[in-house]
Specification:
By secondary structure, this protein is an alpha+beta fold. Helices cover about 25% and strands about 30% of the residues. Bound molecules: 2-acetamido-2-deoxy-beta-D-glucopyranose (2 copies).
Length: about 220
């Protein structure tokens, strides 16, 4: 199943606090049809996971300016009472490659930068193998950054970089597995995206195995 939407970049700023995504990281490789995991914890900055609450979680591709939803992973999952979700990557949504990432989008919390948009958090770009699909010219243009303006992209990248490195050093002191967290955050620096405009429509039914609640914040599975 495939559902997609396009979203234009709003203003090029990124919230400094994050859902701290420990998987996928830049070195992650998943295979179509085989369980792939998304894991997160609280980075000790605000907003807390309890404020972020239920999120729509999606497999995405694209660039700094525009992204496309490829596969819905969870239509509504409370990130404060779950710590992971697994899904089966749909082989038909794209080709083998390293242009995939995960987006969390809060169903209640708004962006601190622009309350017209939902709070969002992005994983590092990671690799999917065993894929049979293709990206059309629109999606390839998003990945190549040929759509949108470069000025905004540069500004978004700079804001992201600052926010992520600050978040990395704070998280490293508070997370149970400091090395894993720092690594995850470093990769997020390289590939995080700007604030998106508009709400995604709920996508295909999720093949999701919900995570269990972990007692410890920062506990790495
Ligand atoms: C490219 O694929 C996306 C996702 O399926 C779709 O929404 C969009 O309309 C396609 N664009 C073109 C030019 O075919
Ligand atoms: C911490 O994370 C790193 C990277 O994922 C891993 O190699 C290491 O085994 C983890 N350590 C613990 C104690 O979980």
């Amino acid at each position: 199943m495939r559902s997609a939407f396009f979203s234009a970049l709003a203003l090029a700023t990124l919230a400094s606090a994050e859902i701290f995504i420990t998987e996928p990281v830049a070195s992650t490789t998943c295979t179509a049809g085989v369980a792939c995991y998304v894991r997160w914890n609280d980075d000790a900055n605000t907003p807390a996971l309890a404020s972020i609450g239920p999120c729509q979680i999606d497999l995405m591709t694209g660039g700094q300016q525009q992204q496309t939803l490829l596969q819905n992973i969870a239509p509504s999952l409370d990130v404060s009472t779950n710590s992971f979700v697994s899904y089966l990557p749909d082989a038909t949504v794209g080709p083998n490659g390293a242009d995939y990432f995960i987006r969390f989008q809060s169903l209640s919390l708004k962006s601190t930068d622009n309350p017209a948009y939902p709070y969002q958090s992005f994983s590092a770009k990671f690799t999917l193998n065993g894929m049979t699909g293709t990206f059309n010219s629109t999606i390839q243009g998003q990945i190549d950054g040929t759509s949108g303006t470069t000025a905004a992209a540069t500004s978004a990248a700079a804001a992201t970089s600052n926010a992520a490195s600050s978040s990395a050093s704070k998280a490293a002191t508070s997370a149970a597995n400091a090395s894993a967290s720092a690594k995850a955050s470093a990769s997020a620096t390289a590939s995080a995206n700007g604030v998106l405009k508009g709400l995604a429509a709920p996508g295909a039914a999720a093949t999701a195995l919900l995570g269990v609640v972990l007692g410890l914040v920062g506990f790495a599975i």
